[in-house]
Design a protein that fits this description.
Elements lengths: L2 H10 L1 H9 L12 E2 L7 E2 L4 E2 L1 H14 L3 E7 L4 E6 H17 L7 E5 L4 H13 L2 E4 L6 H11 L3 E5 L1 E4 L2 E4 H11 L6 E5 L13 E3 L15 E2 L3 E7 L7 E6 H14 L8 E4 L6 H13 L3 E5 L11 H9 L1 E6 L1 H10 L16 E4 L6 H11 L3 E3 L11 E2 L16 E2 L4 E5 L12 E6 L14 H9 L5 E10 L5 E6 L3 E4 L2 E4 H9 L4 E11 L3 E10 L7 H15 L8 E4 L13 H8 L14 H11 L9
Parallel strand pairs: 4-17, 6-7, 6-8, 8-11, 11-12, 16-17, 16-18, 18-19, 19-20, 30-31
Antiparallel strand pairs: 1-2, 3-13, 4-5, 9-10, 14-15, 21-22, 23-24, 24-25, 25-26, 27-28, 29-30
Helix pairs in contact: 1-2, 3-4, 3-5, 3-9, 4-5, 6-7, 8-9, 11-12
Bound molecules: coenzyme A and adenosine monophosphate.
The site of coenzyme A has 27 residues, from strand 9 and helix 11.
Amino acid sequence: MAYADLHRASLQDPNAFWMEQAQAIDWVTPPSKALFDENAPLYEWFKDAQCNTCWNAVDRHVEAGRGEQTAIIYDSPITGTKRWISYVELRNRVASLAGALRAKGVEKGDRVIIYMPMIPEALEAMLACARLGAVHSVVFGGFAANELAVRIDDAQPKAIIAASCGLEPGRVVHYKPLLDAAIEAAAHKPDFCVIFQREQEVAELIPGRDYNWHGFQFGVAPAECVPVSGDHPAYILYTSGTTGQPKGVVRPTAGHMVALHWTMKAIYNVDPGDVFWAASDVGWVVGHSYICYAPLLAGNTTIVFEGKPIGTPDAGTFWRVISEHRVKSFFTAPTAFRAVKREDPKGEYVGKYDLSCLEQVYLAGERADPDTITWAQDKLGVPVVDHWWQTETGWAIAANPLGVEQLPIKIGSPAVAMPGYDVQVLDEGGHPVAPGTLGAIAIKLPLPPGTLPTLWNAETRFRKSYLEQFPGYYASGDAGYMDEDGYVYIMARTDDVINVAGHRLSTGGMEEVLASHPDVAECAVIGVSDDLKGQVPLGFLCLNKGADRDAAEVVSECVKLVRDKIGPVAAFKLAVVVDRLPKTRSGKILRATMVKIADGEAFKMPATIDDPAILDEIAVALQSLGLPATKA
Ligand code: COA
Ligand code: AMP
């Protein structure tokens, strides 16, 4: 079926469309229907089924005789290690870990936080939870202890599984002290922790609370797959919202499996046995969906890459991995390509490797700038597909479904709505606008299977954040337009979320941290354009009257504070002290105008501005940071 027919069919008869895709999944009890809309505008999919994700991702491939196929390739240029794990080995390792977790009391529905770097054990921990029906919540290693503590208090985990350390180029990330500090700071205490000791750093364990990953599995019976209902939460993944309190996106078990499985052929164009590589991190949604679950559900080989696009050891590392492991589809963030392109603009490293295996490349996580796409297309000679999605959806809202039909690539657009997504652009009153007109991008409810049914323990926030702005629609938080052919163009966020090196961050969260500095009376954080990272945060600080402090000193304390409270991933390095902030007469800080000034763009003087002279003060302050700031 051609794309357009497929999309139409999915919207006209969602039950028929998704029940057909559901046949690819092994069910303990099959669903009686796909869509459960009794509680609209809250929707659920395959709710009355019984199933297990680990069975579908691991065991069934062994049962089907493909146990010797490689499930995971671990390639770590940072440690100089490579390992191949077959499906049967993965099944045995996951069953043993799950058995040990169960022996310590972890059961269906219990939460388990996973705080691990890019090692295969991170996937094994996720799958062991799935095996038991325990709900995992993976926390990215670049977050500080405080962020981990916030997640511990929200998810209330029975156990935490962590590694002794992570490895950034030139720096060991000491996970264990971060973990200890987070548990100390959190009101909720886990019953126990499991620590995977890496040879690069062996952590000290706290007797009675911490168990060694290997030791605690000794002599324990392996666990079988525990059936859960279709709407059971597979995992919680926290993502940035408008405040420092992250949103716990809930992923429903059955819809997750059905949708992800469908994407592997339809979007990523791979078949069972093919090697698929998403160069992301298990701490992000891309890592959940496309390093761990989707490739395994589809019987592919997935790659766990512990390295960076450049510097580990060079800008040829992506091409080396693709060539060596015969990767057919490769997924990364535009920022990673920008980093490679900056070091190797002519693509000289590309020519050093046999990339004949590579058939297509996918980009997501932030806007893909035309230069980057064109560079990748030229150097690699394969289709480069930009696709748009969010932690909330877990899979692409818009893409070019190469496995169904290759649609024309329009550079600057992540192409067209995927099945189940009725994407519309709305004006402020919630009315659809004409093609080419900017507006809020919304998705008519219901969202397709696999997308978030709610936020963890926060249904009111779920409704408020996503459902109330445009009744009958999911508000994506992105603004943009659609053209006559239904191609979507994502232009900006409508909230204060920024995208730094493909990482989603809340400027509101950073403002909360800055405001806690004793000398800061008022502050604002904006995202300014950056050639490499897309955006970087920049803070404006107004100091308390009488704070007789050196501005540079306060700035460096504030930079350290954000790093300590949120983590290095915030990449908060730019801040400036100003006397006052530009505001409307009603006291709203004019952040959007400050962004335009910082980026050196023309801007209209806001009609409601209280005192226009402040804008020039802001421009002067930004120029002192070397930014191309424009004066009014
Ligand atoms: N654990 C601990 N610290 C981490 C981390 C992790 N998993 N990931 C990043 N950090 C740290 C970095 O070491 C850096 O610290 P520093 O300030 O001491 O240098 C900081 O967080 C900022 O990291 P980042 O913004 O990633 O910048 P970078 O200069 O280290 O690397 C790129 C730049 C472009 C190479 C890198 O951002 C990259 O590979 N991006 C791809 C992003 C991606 O895959 N996103 C997933 C969505 S698809
Ligand atoms: P995350 O939840 O971290 O995946 O971030 C989701 C946000 O990243 C989206 O709401 C967009 O703002 C942005 N984003 C993701 N993919 C794209 C894309 N292909 N083009 C433009 N923006 C994107």
